[in-house]
Design the sequence.
């Protein structure tokens, strides 16, 4: 495990972490939560996630990756065969970022849990994720709480998880 939560890490300080990931060290948990990473940091970490095949849990909670960082993360998740859990709560992600993450969720062979609460994905973002969930048979857990949601997103979400045999946990 590589736990670097609450270290005040900036984008410029992420390169050594990416290099460690390239070294082949068997890191199963990468926790970069509560730092100051933006899309620039994701442009450094993303390719390293492509390379590292041992990370199964990735926490980027409470950074500021935004929609562009979510796109970069999505690219890495589409290629990953090991990442099962991702926490990108509190990252200033909006509809566009949710759409990118939904594309990764559709393509992923390993992702089972996504925590994307306390962003600004709105009803449309949840609709994108709902469509993706219906196409990912392995998916089990979703947190979309605190995203300015209304009843509008409930029907697509309930349809997606209602017909999904492995889905177990929803935070809304």
Sequence:
């Amino acid at each position: 495990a590589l736990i670097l939560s609450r270290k005040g890490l900036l984008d410029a300080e992420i390169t050594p972490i990416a290099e460690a990931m390239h070294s082949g060290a068997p890191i199963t948990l990468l926790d970069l939560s509560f730092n100051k990473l933006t899309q620039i940091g994701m442009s450094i970490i993303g390719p390293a996630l492509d390379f590292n095949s041992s990370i199964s849990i990735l926490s980027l909670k409470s950074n500021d990756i935004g929609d562009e960082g979510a796109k970069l993360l999505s690219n890495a998740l589409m290629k990953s065969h090991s990442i099962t859990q991702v926490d990108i709560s509190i990252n200033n992600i909006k509809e566009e970022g949710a759409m990118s993450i939904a594309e990764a969720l559709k393509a992923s062979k390993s992702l089972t849990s996504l925590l994307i609460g306390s962003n600004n994905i709105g009803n449309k973002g949840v609709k994108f994720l709902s469509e993706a969930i219906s196409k990912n048979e392995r998916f089990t857990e979703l947190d979309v709480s605190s995203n300015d949601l209304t009843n509008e997103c409930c029907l697509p979400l309930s349809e997606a998880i209602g017909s999904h045999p492995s889905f177990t946990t929803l935070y809304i």
DSSP finds six helices and seven strands in the chain. The chain has a mean pLDDT of 94. The radius of gyration is 15 Å.
